[in-house]
Task: inverse folding
C-alpha cells in the first residue's frame, strides 16, 4: 500500500528536523571538546576550563559601555542603507553617536586570562613582547573598516600566525604565548588602534570582542592555543 504524498512529506520534515537537531548536538559536543583541549594545553584544570567556558558563553551576551563618540559619517552609502534598513543586519536608525563597549566573554575574560599567564612569568618578557607586537602589526595591517559592520580581518590569519610564531620562539610554552599574542595582538592592532576611525562606520555601537562588530578575541586566542 502506497503512502499518501502528504504523509511522506510529513515524514521527510520529521527526519530533516531530527537530522538538524543531531547535527547541532554533535557540532556543539565537538566545539566543547576542542575548547577543553585548548584549555588543557594552556595548563588549566577541567574545573577551571568549565568555569571559563561557561563564563565566556554567558558573558558573550554582555556588553559594557566604555565611552561615546560623535559619528562623523554624514552620508551612508547604498550598501550600508541596504544592510541596515532592508536586510535588517543592523539597527534601522542611523545614529550620530557611537557607543564603544567591551564584551565580557569575548574581551574581558580572555584579557584577564592573558594577564594571569603574564603573572606566572613562564615566558621570557622579550619573547612575549615580540609575539604581541608581531600580531599587533599583522592585525592592524590586515584589518579593515567595514561600514555598518565593524572592523573585519581574515578569521584564521591571527590564530595561525600566533601559533606558528609561538612554536618558533618558545616551543616549551607555545600554547600560552600563542594565546596571549592572539588575544592582545588582535585587541591592540584591530580594535584599540582603530578606535579613532570607528566613527566612520555608520554604526551606533562598536563592541570590542563581540561577534558581528569587532572580532571574536576569545575564539582567536583559543584557536591559537589549540594550533600551537
Result:
Amino acid at each position: 500500500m502506497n503512502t499518501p504524498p502528504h504523509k511522506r512529506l510529513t515524514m521527510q520534515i520529521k527526519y530533516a528536523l531530527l537530522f538538524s537537531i543531531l547535527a547541532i548536538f554533535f557540532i556543539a559536543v565537538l566545539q566543547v571538546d576542542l575548547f577543553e583541549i585548548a584549555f588543557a594545553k594552556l595548563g588549566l584544570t577541567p574545573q577551571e576550563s568549565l568555569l571559563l567556558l561557561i563564563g565566556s558563553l554567558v558573558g558573550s551576551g554582555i556588553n559594557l559601555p566604555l565611552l561615546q563618540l560623535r559619528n562623523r559619517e554624514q552620508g551612508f552609502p547604498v550598501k550600508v542603507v541596504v544592510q541596515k534598513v532592508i536586510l535588517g543586519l543592523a539597527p534601522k536608525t542611523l545614529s550620530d553617536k557611537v557607543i564603544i563597549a567591551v564584551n565580557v566573554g569575548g574581551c574581558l575574560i580572555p584579557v584577564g586570562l592573558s594577564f594571569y599567564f603574564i603573572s606566572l612569568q613562564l615566558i621570557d618578557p622579550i619573547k612575549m613582547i615580540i609575539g604581541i607586537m608581531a600580531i599587533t602589526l599583522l592585525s592592524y595591517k590586515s584589518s579593515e573598516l567595514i561600514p555598518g559592520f565593524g572592523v573585519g580581518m581574515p578569521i584564521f590569519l591571527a590564530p595561525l600566525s600566533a601559533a606558528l610564531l609561538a612554536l618558533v620562539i618558545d616551543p616549551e610554552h607555545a600554547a600560552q604565548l600563542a594565546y596571549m599574542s592572539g588575544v592582545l595582538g588582535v585587541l591592540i592592532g584591530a580594535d584599540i588602534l582603530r578606535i579613532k576611525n570607528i566613527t566612520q562606520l555608520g554604526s551606533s555601537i562598536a563592541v570590542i570582542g563581540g561577534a558581528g562588530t569587532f572580532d571574536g578575541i576569545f575564539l582567536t586566542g583559543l584557536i591559537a592555543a589549540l594550533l600551537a
Summary: The longest helix spans residues 5-41. Residues 5-227 form one domain. The chain is about 60% helix and 10% strand. Helices lie at 5-41, 46-59, 78-86, 104-120, 125-142, 157-169, 174-191, 217-227.
